[in-house]
């Protein structure tokens, strides 16, 4: 049975956004490359912001698998946002159509009733 991927797995805990050029540091935590490098500029130690483990300046490189997963997540997020927007527009259009149909029906009934007494009332 497939399980849903947690969105926490593709988000940097420093910038709280989807990874951009993710890197893994020696303790195993992942961050955007620029986020962890900027963080290390603010501290005297090379330390993980999550578990506080310290180490010598690591040689970090981009985790290409995690980067691909993050890019796919971004694409899915854009597609889902577009679908949601289309669904909202459709619901709004359907709602207006129902209101117009009701309004036209109500106006037609009122007009037919009023025609018999020779008085016309504009429906508002």
From TrEMBL:
Enumerate the UniProt keywords alphabetically.
Answer: Metal-binding, Zinc, Zinc-finger
What are the protein's GO molecular function terms? zinc ion binding
Residues in domain RING-type? 12-52
| Pfam families with a match to the protein in the record | zf-C3HC4_4 (PF15227)
Position of the signal peptide: none
Record's protein name: RING-type domain-containing protein
Organism equals Oncorhynchus kisutch
Q: What is the lineage of its organism?
A: Eukaryota, Metazoa, Chordata, Craniata, Vertebrata
């Amino acid at each position: 049975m497939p399980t849903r991927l947690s969105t926490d797995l593709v988000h940097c805990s420093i910038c709280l956004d989807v990874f951009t050029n993710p890197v893994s540091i020696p303790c195993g935590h992942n961050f955007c490359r620029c986020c962890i490098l900027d963080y290390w500029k603010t501290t005297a130690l090379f330390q993980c912001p999550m578990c506080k483990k310290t180490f010598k300046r690591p040689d970090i490189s981009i985790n290409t698998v995690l980067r691909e997963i993050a890019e796919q997540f971004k694409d899915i997020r854009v597609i889902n946002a577009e679908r949601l927007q289309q669904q909202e527009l459709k619901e709004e259009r359907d709602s207006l159509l129902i209101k117009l149909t009701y309004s036209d029906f109500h106006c037609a009934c009122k007009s037919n009733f009023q025609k018999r007494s020779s008085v016309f009332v504009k429906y508002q």
